[in-house]
Design goal:
Length: 529
């Protein structure tokens, strides 16, 4: 058995009999007795697995312990063979009764261990565990001292899992107040869908420190009970970013507190502009670099009113399948804005890429509040919106002129989309219903590509009186927009645009008077764009 390299046991969903304490003959590594838990790799066998490299265990319904390690009495001083010196990967899934990955008296084990020699588990690099319902932690801080080459920990969908490292089974305080908990080679920690996870390690106080010198990937998703990563001071000098739920954050604030953002916009169904936001959460908003929301979003907005001025580092926003979202940016439509006529301008200076898909309830990118708040996106370069059927417009005239870096605009499959740029209706009403034509055209100087497709209700790009200039536009596609009657009511300048793609093919614009005249003529002729 010393030559054994791989162990793979997969029962493919079969369960052992309720009264049986034995296993299939092909799985004779497993051991059971009436007085002890069922063990996958017993102590009597583990010493023979010198060349074992990979372990994969799946759907072993009654196994409670994977590795059982017997330690001789302290008085017996004999050289101890290394345990699993070549084991590199452990993968476990659907181990519904497993309570321990390894069971050992680590205090005694380490007393017999010669620190000058190579250690047991010296080549273990990867631990992957999913859908293991009963296990509550992975290993103790004492055992962690042996995992000098552990590089990746990935745990998800384990209902009772509470901590990665726990000292609950250590019988003494051998580490307390004297030794740091250190994983010298750990580079990646991924924790997902763990409803009872409290943190990575909540252990000793005093002078201890959690040291992760090479960690450069930390992902935490859907762990609602996790308020902090650790109770110890954290040292992880390589960690530049952290991924928490839908957000990618700069790690600077996290490194000082190790707490996780408890966002009101993710926890309240009826979030509104008057929601009180903690200073800690606003600090995380200042660290937010990317938002990637995919389902499970409970609030009606992605960003609350008080968050907006803090989003100075936000670069990308991706959202998909968030059925409860009505609005992307809450710009304060309620009491805090209604009593003031002062106009506030909120700029998101680094936001460059926005993609919104399958947001079934989305009605507004932001809801107009009578131009009391104006959002500006001076570096937005790419905007793509698709399958947002309740959305009726994208921009308002008051802010579209701030899109000085917009290069690509794609709007598709939005059934209720009527215009891309909507007039500032509130201002028009206040001024008597006729704002007239503005003196200067609205310019999108960098726009190169414009795609409008499958917009059944689209009447035009803008039906206001403003003139538009797209001096860099090279590619335009208008397909399956059966309700369109004109592109703009004002003038349109597109000096670099030579052709336009339509449902019926490519149109040579050099042969046409202009885009507006072409659309008007073709719709009067019954031509379907």
């Amino acid at each position: 058995m010393g030559a054994l390299i791989d162990i793979t046991i997969d029962l493919s969903g079969e369960k052992w009999g309720a009264n049986s304490r034995s296993v299939h003959q092909e799985n004779d590594i497993l051991e059971a007795s009436d007085s002890h838990p069922i063990v996958a790799v017993p102590s009597s066998f583990i010493h023979t697995l010198h060349n074992l490299s990979n372990v994969k265990l799946c759907t072993l319904e009654q196994v409670e312990v994977i590795f059982d390690i017997h330690v001789p009495s302290v008085g017996i001083v004999t050289p101890q063979p290394l345990l699993l010196p070549r084991l590199s990967d452990i993968k476990m899934s659907d181990m519904n009764c497993m309570t321990h990955l390894w069971r050992c008296n680590w205090r005694k084990f380490l007393m017999l261990h010669n620190p000058q020699q190579k250690s047991s588990f010296q080549n273990l690099t990867t631990i992957y565990m999913e859908k293991c319902k009963t296990i509550e932690y992975l290993f103790s801080p004492l055992m962690a001292t042996l995992l000098s080459n552990l590089k990746k920990i990935h745990i998800e969908n384990c209902n009772r899992f509470q901590e990665v490292v726990s000292n609950r089974d250590d019988e003494d305080d051998i580490l307390k107040g004297t030794t740091n908990v250190r994983f010298p080679s750990l580079r990646s920690i991924i924790l997902g869908k763990l409803p009872n996870l409290r943190g990575f390690f909540f252990g000793f106080s005093g002078k201890n420190e959690l040291q992760l010198p090479l960690l450069d990937e930390l992902v935490i998703e859907r762990c609602p009970q996790m308020m902090a990563f650790t109770s110890l001071p954290l040292r992880a000098p390589k960690l530049e970013y952290i991924h928490i739920n839908a957000g990618k954050y700069n790690s600077s604030f996290f490194m000082t507190t190790t707490t996780l953002p408890q966002a009101p916009s993710q926890s309240l169904n009826n979030t509104n502009s008057l929601t009180t936001i903690s200073e800690e959460f606003l600090s995380y908003s200042r660290s937010l670099i990317e938002m990637n929301a995919r389902g499970g979003w409970e609030s009606r907005v992605f960003f609350l009113y008080d968050e907006l001025p803090q989003l100075q580092n936000l670069e990308k926003l991706y959202a998909r399948d968030c059925v409860s979202v009505l609005e992307v940016f809450d710009i304060g439509t309620e009491v805090r804005c209604s009593s003031s006529s002062q106009i506030s301008v909120v700029e998101l200076p680094k936001l460059s890429d926005v993609c919104l898909q399958y947001l079934e309830s989305l009605k507004y990118i932001w809801m107009s509040n009578g131009r009391r708040t104006i959002l500006e996106f001076p570096n937005l370069a790419k905007l793509s919106i698709s399958s947002c059927n309740q959305l009726e417009h994208v921009f308002t005239c008051s802010m579209v002129g701030s899109l000085l870096q917009l290069k690509e605009l794609s709007i598709r499959w939005c059934q209720n989309m009527e215009v891309i740029v909507k007039e500032d209706q509130e201002e028009e009403e206040e001024e008597g219903g006729d704002i007239g034509k503005v003196n200067e055209p609205i310019r999108l100087p960098c726009l190169k590509s414009l795609e409008l497709g499958n917009l059944d209700s689209l009447k035009g790009f803008c039906l206001g009186n403003a003139d538009y200039s797209f001096p860099s536009l090279e590619s335009m596609s208008i397909k399956r927009c059966k309700s369109i009657t004109t592109f703009t009511k004002g003038d349109l300048v597109v000096p670099e645009l030579k052709v336009m793609e339509t449902r019926s093919g490519t149109i040579n614009l050099a042969e046409e008077q202009d885009i507006n005249s072409f659309i008007i003529t073709k719709t009067q002729e019954g031509f379907d764009l």
